[in-house]
Design a protein that fits this description.
The chain has about 375 residues and is α/β, with parallel strands linked by helices. Helices cover about 35% and strands about 15% of the residues. It is built from 14 helices and twelve strands. The strands form two sheets. The protein has a seven-stranded mixed sheet, with helices on both faces. Bound molecules: pyridoxal-5'-phosphate.
């Protein structure tokens, strides 16, 4: 089955008791058993819920994986993976990491004796240099946030194999429509469903998918033990959102090309970060591992002045100033003061994340209106 058909049908059956074509919201905490331990596969809703099971089956099909689990948030999915590690273990990650993951790693798990190293992963030699015999996990995010760097997934997998380390890819920015890390050899694919997959800015949720039954068993064990599960109502909303994922992503990509090119030719814009440009550092890698370049991009104004950036952000009428991304409506954000405020300034600057960098999540509105909005805001 191809993507669009899977988005609508994979893992989804009409409700056997009524024929309802939409998966019901099983708003229940427990399930009645015939006799002790004689049940229909459901015992307690932290462990399993039918609405959640359908969503998991659908999503794992979109990632070409075998096992999938949904979590109360992207961060709880992240936390679950790190809880598989033990004191003394090491993780190598990107220096352009989602701010919340950076905070979780450095402010919480570092105190439990897990060591995190952050390197510029767009150059594979930096990954290789950071590997030790204690490295258990490579934590990739590609495209990265907010510098829109591209990391070569297959290249990173090759390095990890030599050291017996696992590879996780945070696939939030690409969505399963544009990139499937498991097909490229990654051990685990992670999503903040909150973003493109949910797509309507109304749900917080996370996902982990894998082909490895041992990893899935550990993930399920930690999920059930820790309990960060999504609500059945939210699972219903995400199932509904996924039905248009392919159409939304097409439009995000189309609008992304137009906005990126508009900004590139603007006299007040100094730099535009978007993997579709031929002069983007890893444009060729992006072309080979992604099916489109997406609607996420960042730019810096000429002069790199924070005040100028603030004035532009305040003027937008269609782009809304907000954290988050990947919804149908266009958003604008200021990573230095919003999503990435937890990262020390020197570290941000060293990675090119300047004080005046503006990030856009290009939505699915009419591109002419989006460009007119940029025109009046940038001037
Ligand atoms: C939002 C986000 C997360 C965290 O997900 P939540 O659903 O907000 O907990 C992780 N990684 C990336 C790339 C994100 O954009």
């Amino acid at each position: 089955m191809k993507f669009a058909t899977k988005a609508l049908h994979a893992g989804i059956q009409p409700d056997p008791s009524t024929g309802a074509i939409m998966t019901p919201i099983f708003q229940t905490s427990t399930y009645v058993q015939e006799a002790p331990n004689d049940h229909k596969g459901y015992e307690y809703a932290r462990t399993q819920n039918p609405t959640r099971s359908v969503l998991e089956a659908n999503l794992v099909a979109l990632e070409n994986g075998k096992f999938g689990r949904c979590f109360a948030s992207g961060m709880s999915a992240t936390e679950t993976v790190i809880k598989m590690l033990r004191p003394g273990d090491e993780v190598v990650s990107t220096n352009d990491l989602y701010g919340g993951a950076y905070r979780l790693f450095t402010k919480i798990f570092a105190d439990f004796g897990i060591k995190f190293t952050f390197v510029d992963m767009k150059d594979l030699t930096n990954i290789e240099a950071a590997m030790t015999d204690k490295t258990k996990l490579l934590w990739l995010e590609t495209p990265t946030n907010p510098m829109i760097n591209i990391i070569d997934i297959e290249g990173a997998v090759g390095i990890a194999k030599k050291y017996g380390a696992k590879v996780l890819v945070d696939n939030t920015f690409a969505s399963p429509y544009l990139q499937n890390p498991l097909d490229l050899g990654a051990d685990i694919v992670m999503h903040s469903i909150t973003k493109f997959i949910g797509g309507h800015s109304d749900v917080i949720m996370g996902f982990l998918g894998t082909n490895d039954p041992d990893l899935d068993e550990q993930i399920a064990f930690i999920q059930n033990s820790s309990g960060a599960v999504p609500s059945p109502n939210d699972c219903f909303l995400v199932l509904r959102g996924i039905k248009t994922l392919h159409i939304r992503m097409e439009r995000h990509c189309e609008n992304g090309v137009k906005v990126a090119n508009y900004l590139k030719n603007h006299s007040r814009v100094d730099k535009v970060y978007w993997p579709g440009f031929e002069d983007h550092t890893n444009h060729e890698v992006a072309k080979s591992q992604m099916r489109g370049f997406g609607g996420m991009l960042s730019f810096v104004l000429v002069g790199d002045d924070m005040g100028d950036a603030y004035r532009v952000m305040e003027k937008f009428k269609i782009f809304s100033l907000a954290e988050s991304l990947g919804g149908v409506e266009s958003l604008v954000g200021h990573p230095a003061s919003m999503t990435h405020a937890a990262i020390p300034r020197e570290e941000r600057m060293a990675n090119g994340l300047s004080d005046s960098l503006i990030r856009l999540s290009v939505g699915i509105e009419d591109a002419d209106d989006l460009i007119a909005d940029l025109e009046q805001a940038i001037g």
